[in-house]
């Protein structure tokens, strides 16, 4: 019986045979890969991780903000501006200072350095002198 939080997909038979061969290896068993489902789940999770990382990329840094490419926005590949607004990094698209675009900006060391050099602070972070 299918559980509500699971669904099924059809895989190419030759691919499943190949996965079953891999499951017989010591390496697969040492990594807890005991079934085709576990193998496929791990492979998909790894791929999703890659896609998540590639969602954003830094396009440019200007005097008034940074430009970030967001591949999940429509139209595909929209550019978002995170502006330097008072003491905050402010996303012009989301109209927020803690959205994923601002979080991305703070997470990238070279962008973070620019934000810190401009005296901006991260939403939720407290100033050390207050
Ligand atoms: Zn945003």
Could you explain the architecture of this structure?
This protein has 130 residues and is α+β, with helices and mostly antiparallel strands. It folds into 2 domains: 13-51, no CATH class; 56-117, no CATH class. It is built from 5 helices and 4 strands. A hairpin with a 2-residue loop joins strand 3 and strand 4. The radius of gyration is 22 Å and the shape is elongated. The mean pLDDT is 87. Zinc ion binds at residues 80, 91, 93-94, 96, 99-101.
Give me the secondary-structure topology:
Elements: H1 13-23, H2 26-30, H3 36-53, E1 56-61, E2 65-70, E3 78-85, E4 88-91, H4 100-107, H5 109-117
Comma- or semicolon-separated keywords:
single chain, 4 strands, 5 helices, alpha+beta, 18% strand, binds zinc ion, 2 domains, 130 residues, four-stranded antiparallel beta sheet
Distinct bound molecules: zinc ion
**How would you classify the quaternary structure?**
single chain
Indicate the proportion of strand residues: 15-25%
The separation of the N and C termini measures 59 Å
> Which structural category do the helix and sheet elements fall into?
alpha+beta
Which descriptor suits the 3D outline? elongated
Placed side by side, the strands forming the largest sheet appear as 1-2-3-4
Largest sheet: 4 strands, antiparallel
Let me know the number of strands.
Answer: 4
Treating each run of at least 4 consecutive H or I residues as one helix, how many helices? 5
* Poorly predicted spans: none
The helix/strand series, from N terminus to C terminus, equals: HHHEEEEHH
Radius of gyration: 22 Å
Number of domains: 2
Give the % helix. 25-40%
Average pLDDT figure: 87
